[in-house]
Amino acid sequence: MNMEKKVLLQVKNLKKYFPVSKGLFTNRQVRFVKAVDNVSFDVYDGETLGLVGETGCGKTTVARTILQLYHPTSGQIIFDGVDLTSLPESDLRKMRRRMQMIFQDPYASLNPRMTVGSIISAPLDVHTDLNRSEKQEKVQDLLKLVGLNPDFVNRYPHEFSGGQRQRIGIARALALSPDLVLCDEPISSLDVSIQAQVVNLLEELQDRLGLTYIFVAHDLSMVRHISDRMVVMYLGKVMELADRNEIYLNPRHPYTKALMSAVPIPNPRKARDRQRIILQGDIPSPLNPPQGCNFNTRCPLAQDICFKEDPEYREIEPNHFVACHFA
After folding, report:
1. H/E/C letters for each residue in 26-53?
2. How far apart are CA 258 and CA 299, in angstroms?
3. At what angle do helices 192-209 and 162-174 cross, to 10 degrees?
């Protein structure tokens, strides 16, 4: 990745802790779920940054906190030079036009009582002064853009398949011509045959409209296909960040190595010779993460220092960051 590229988004030391109260009637907040714990990364203008990790590692919480759907516990989210965490609500609303989200479940994220036309025009109602005919024209253009028939405006979501619904969700996200689109596992609930179509559509739209994506997923081969760089998360922290090919061919963190060893290879001979790393045990609870390195309970390399000190997140090669004592 060329360092001359413009940085569109900076996430600095982001934390999001959810309070957990104890007892049915007492509202005492005793502990916190550390969903996102000191996460930092940059996103360049026009790139796709993949965000990967096991279920419950905090990927979606990072995406929603960037959009300020969750207010961060601490840290900064700097979008195009403006710190979103300190903006008043009225200014944040203006910035929201430039950041949109495509949700995971196309069945739950579309209101079943609204027509497709009113779903896609909802952002236009809130953020623009277009008259009715201008909105209608814009909605039809957006439907064409995502490969749907513009005559579908008066139909309801239940009349569409999952892949078509996700296209409607993409059209809604693009209604305000955003700069940054956060894709929260947009293909995980679709059939495999439809997944490739939706990913190809996202790539075409990126080329045509100059979009920047943060692509949250746990399908590693798909993330490698669509991303320029990848962030690997585990239990609320970033373990490794590098160019997608660098992470695939030269992973430095033991957790990343284990993940990459699980990616299927289409060549049976190569697959047979490859060493498969199987991690022991389960992910610890984010309510009570281990002391020291988050990964120490499952790490094959763990030494005494790993149980005492949190490893520094550092750059070990140009643009390759790792949080491990032994990387």
Report:
1. CCEEEEEEEEEEEEEEEEECCCEEEEEC
2. 10
3. 20
Residue 230 β-bridge partners: 50, 242
Contacts of 187 (CB under 8 A, 6+ apart): 166, 194, 195, 198, 199, 217, 219, 222
- Pick from 183, 186, 177: nearest CA to 210: 177
Distance CA 219, CA 230 (A): 12
- Which one is predicted more confidently, 211 or 19? 211
Give pLDDT, residue 220.
87
Tens digits of residue pLDDT in 79-93: 999 999 999 998 998
CA 40, distance to chain mean position in Å, is: 14
SS3 96: helix
Transcribe 147-176 into DSSP letters. T--GGGGG--GGGS-HHHHHHHHHHHHHTT
The pLDDT tens digits of the residues spanning 100-109 come to 999 988 889 9
93, 116 in Cβ contact below 8 A?
no
Identify which of 140, 157, 156, 67 has the alpha carbon closest to the alpha carbon of residue 106: 157
Q: Is 108 helix (H, G, I), strand (E, B) or coil?
A: coil
d(CA 181, CA 166): 14
